[in-house]
Amino acid sequence: MNRKCLLMFLACILLFGCSEKKSHQETINGSQFIKELRKEAICLTDIDSYGYKILQEYPIKEYGDGNSVVYVVDGSCSVCIAKLLKIIELLSTFHCDSRINVIVEKRFEASVEFYIEKYFKGQNYLITLVEDGLISNNDYNGIIMAIHKGKIVESAIYLSCLYLMFYNIFQVE
């Protein structure tokens, strides 16, 4: 009898131990995504005034639920486009369910779309076009915002790893 019980117990362990475990990763929204970027020290904060200027000056398109991540990119700069691609990758890594809305100057729309499609085919994104010269001539490049129903709920500026390295080395106390 003990032998039967032991065999049944071992069979149960094998059945439950070998069953496929589904890894359920909880999704986060745009605001939580930016907080994660800050926690990982790849963003600086205090850019609210720039963010609100962008919302006032540029016609930001929204998705049906009014929840999106907005990223401003200087399409004339290959490093800047690489940073955009990294943000798109991080959206997936952190399981962010907010869609990305890329703000780019009209003259650089094709190149930015080319790289998004090349590396993230099928990525759900929007592009908001602005007048030429508006992004490349100011500090908007790299701004990332979580927008909900036309309002900024979280904002920061995304930095590349190289910039962060120099920032930390030369930071004055």
Give a written overview of the molecule:
The model is unreliable at 10-23 and 162-173 (pLDDT under 50). The chain has helices at residues 2-18, 30-39, 48-57, 78-93, 109-119, 161-170, and strands at residues 43-44, 67-72, 99-105, 125-130, 143-148, 151-158. The protein is built from six helices and six strands, in the order H-H-E-H-E-H-E-H-E-E-E-H. The protein is of the alpha/beta class and 173 residues long. A six-stranded mixed beta sheet has the order 1-6-5-2-3-4, with helices on both faces. The chain is globular, with a radius of gyration of 22 Å.
Question: Quick summary of this structure?
Answer:
This protein has 173 residues and is of the alpha/beta class. Helices cover 43% and strands 20% of the residues.
Strand and helix map with partners:
Elements: H1 2-18, H2 30-39, E1 43-44, H3 48-57, E2 67-72, H4 78-93, E3 99-105, H5 109-119, E4 125-130, E5 143-148, E6 151-158, H6 161-170
Parallel strand pairs: 2-3, 3-4
Antiparallel strand pairs: 1-6, 2-5, 5-6
